[in-house]
Design a protein that fits this description.
The protein has 8 helices and 6 strands. With 209 residues, it is an alpha/beta fold.
């Protein structure tokens, strides 16, 4: 049986139940040994995080404390410069040469994949799982569409280590980190949007106020 590992990157500013529920469902669906949540240091395609790397890492660690199949990997926080996914999957391939690696991205991110650094090399090192909502349109550029069709997984063969794109429909909760930060800034509660220990540490540290 091939070892399979999920790689789920993001700013996690802060981590919330939508992130965690998606990680759990993908771990079950693909029989993953674990999913690694990988916080960005310098995200190349979005605004920089409001919370520090140290605080985002702490919130992640608290959020998954009782989740044995979700772990935190701070490799991008240890690396200087932009947090390019290609650098991360190359590193993961070096560390796990015999594992099937699944890079987990949302539909919005995947639709902009052709703007990523060395994006066409990603499937050399990993598979890509595209998380879709049932009501979400899936529109790809003229560059991405043929590449997507060429690599689309057409069967249930999960023994390959890399090279396929797997679109999946998940129970994606309508929660966003932007919404959480806005609520906190307005003096409202983030309870039940993110795990209780994360709510507590945000209050203790005065984050997003």
């Amino acid at each position: 049986m091939v070892q399979a590992v999920g790689l789920f990157g993001g700013t996690f500013d802060p981590v919330h139940l939508g992130h965690l529920r998606s990680a759990v469902e993908i771990a079950e669906l693909f029989d993953l040994e674990h999913v690694r949540l990988i916080p960005n240091a310098v995200p190349p395609h979005r605004a920089q995080p409001e919370a520090t790397a140290q605080h985002r890492l702490l919130m992640l660690q608290l959020a998954v404390k009782n989740s044995p199949n979700i772990i935190i990997d701070d490799c991008e926080l240890q690396r200087e410069g932009p947090s390019y996914s290609i650098d991360t999957v190359k590193l993961m391939r070096e560390q796990m040469p015999d594992a099937a690696l699944y890079l987990i991205v949302g539909t919005d991110a995947f639709q902009a994949l052709d703007s990523w650094h060395e994006w066409q090399d990603l499937l050399t090192y990993c598979h890509i799982i595209v998380m879709q909502r049932p009501d979400q349109a899936f529109q790809l550029s003229e560059t991405l569409q043929p590449w997507y069709q060429q690599h689309l997984a057409l069967d249930a063969d999960k023994q390959r280590l890399a090279g396929a794109i797997w679109p999946v429909t998940l129970t994606q909760l309508a929660i966003s980190a932007t919404e959480i930060r806005s609520k906190i800034r307005d003096g409202n509660s983030a309870a039940y949007l993110t795990p209780d220990p994360v709510v507590t540490i945000m209050e203790q540290l005065g984050l997003y106020r």
